[in-house]
Predict the structure.
Amino acid sequence: MTVSPVIQVNDLWFRYGPDQWILSDLNLTIAPGEFVALIGQNGAGKTTLVKHFNGILHPTRGSVLVNGRDTREILFGEAAYSVGYVYQNPDHQIFNLTVREELEFGPRNLGLDPEEIERRTRQVLETVGLVGLEDEYPFALSRGQRQKLAVGAILTMNPPVIIIDEPTTGMDWQGSVDMLDLIQDLHKQGRTIVMITHDMRIVATYARRVTVMAQGQILADGTPADVFSRPDILEASFLQPPQITRIAQGLAAWGMRSDILSVEEAVEHFKKLLVWAGSRGTPV
């Protein structure tokens, strides 16, 4: 049975005015439940592209469909309930006086009854790890907590698709781990995740699909292993694969796979090489 895409981009061209095109001739299909990482240098067009997914921007040419509906025919507020967008800087998204009010704002505007709003708020507080901070002033929270609050404010509207722009920017190591674990849990629950990031380690660890952009165009689209094995594409987009992948590629002449994404994977493969060499009597 064919699964209908949640997002379908058809021959998309976009520019802000009469100047040069920001996006040109883009085609992209995202299926329900995917975890897609959008990568590319600053100015590649990543954020401009995802802002088409929930109607913040509309195509100059072509079309973007969300659940089969053209975004130009959907009211902005309505589109936001299907595709939630978490800004790179949570301070650009948060505006209420308490954590609770921030979480309640979306479902209240959906017209939900007070009991359902309270249920969703309690559930999201637990999901994002902010229980006990309901009455706190959001800007008194840490950067990591504000980022979780920004995600939570989207979750209370229960969108099936969540776009997260640079989720670990400005966070310490523990804050980054907590945020990425939260995103991974949301994906495991069945949500479609579209994540913009410059961190190739995050891409290798969490994403199941990678879309590479440069100069407003899509250069490659595939699994992390496939994409990181394309030095021509990475060079054209001014990107490098994770360090462990570069090491493995440097050892390809000695039998290491060039598509290794993690240290654990490299160790396991190296053990297999040692066993193979031993079976052939090859000195190691």
Remarks:
- The longest helix spans residues 263-279.
- The first strand starts at residue 7 and ends at 14.
- The mean pLDDT is 89.
